[in-house]
Amino acid sequence: FLNLMPKLRANLLIMVPWDLFACSMVCRRWYNEARPLLDSSIQPGMFQTLRYTECQLTNGLKRHIELLAGSRRIGLDYIDLIKQVTIDLLSTSSDFQVNILKALFVLRPPNLTHLKISDSCRYYDRTFSIVNQPQNFWPPIRRLSLNNFRIPNLHQEGMNSLISVFSTQLESLSLANCTIPHTTHEILSRCTRLRYVKLSGVEDTGEGIASVLSSWPELRHFHYEHARILRLKRIVRALNAECLHLESFVAINTMASHDTPTLLKIVTSLSRFPELRRVSLFHIGMDYDEDLVPHGLRLKYTDWKGDVRRRIHPAPRSDDGAWPELRKLSLRDCGEDFAESLLGWAVQTSPKLEEISVPFQLMERNALNVAEVCRRKTTYRNADSLRRKKHLFIMNTRFGINNKKDAWI
């Protein structure tokens, strides 16, 4: 191969890079000679996440794990690149599939810290018998993500056992589309090192998550998708009392818009957190509570997304409402009046502001309107231009995607 003409060698690398790369994993001589030629075709970063899902061919995964084992035997570090394993329990319904997964954990990847498990249809005892062995993970799992553990009688034991196994070392926990019964609350209270918690589409029963927040004194980031105003009240009250180091708060409202004023008054209490730097409020409804504006004194990032239509009037006084540390303001999908008034106010009172995402319809009028709001001269530049911090970069957003034309102020 190395004696081929450079052009032929390049074509061969394009046609069969995976086969050649596989050889480099189990043959040190081939690794030393050909690996520099392969780096441009295949990046080692592909090893960081290993997906064990229904979409993957079982034999292909088996071969992948065998190659990882072979590379370790000759002193290569491919196994060290693995940081996350994603498992769909639907893909572990047979003993053969479970044994493949077991072969991976026997290798004990030293940098594996994130485990993601999704239960697409049912709970398999044989899979949890492998995952629930802490000796398979060293260093221990620090990030755990569970999805679709919704049926209490079927999934409760599996979810509880997973959290329990890693509870003393967990720093990040994400639960999506899960039911959280009172027995799970007890186990969550053991996760005293948690710094990041994300709850999306969860059915929180009993006393709720608020009852365990006192066990998370190191919590820094809290993401909560809610549909029950009373439960949110308890959570915010508990956060204020127990989680004084909170840096980021995300609230996704799935309630009817008539509950929005109450919701916003609750969120304003977040101003009590001395280290809070980011607040994101999604789908906050038709009204806007002006009390939110003066409470941004320490914020660096704030994000509104939803059908907010009312203009801020009168504009907050600069001595009351200035956000001197604000770097980024996002107003995606907000009403034009609200976005325009908050945009103008933020630019005037936030000297460190670097970036604003504005609604598509506001930019559609023309850039001069935005320039008038900002009271600065506007010029257009290509969206791929390098960002210059001494200028303000305004992104034109639609459907969550930046438009080709952006404005530099």
TrEMBL record:
Residues 1-22 form the signal peptide. Gene3D superfamilies: Ribonuclease Inhibitor. Coiled coil: none annotated. Keywords: Signal. It comes from the Eukaryota. This is F-box domain-containing protein. It comes from Jimgerdemannia flammicorona. The lineage of its organism: Eukaryota, Fungi, Fungi incertae sedis, Mucoromycota, Mucoromycotina.
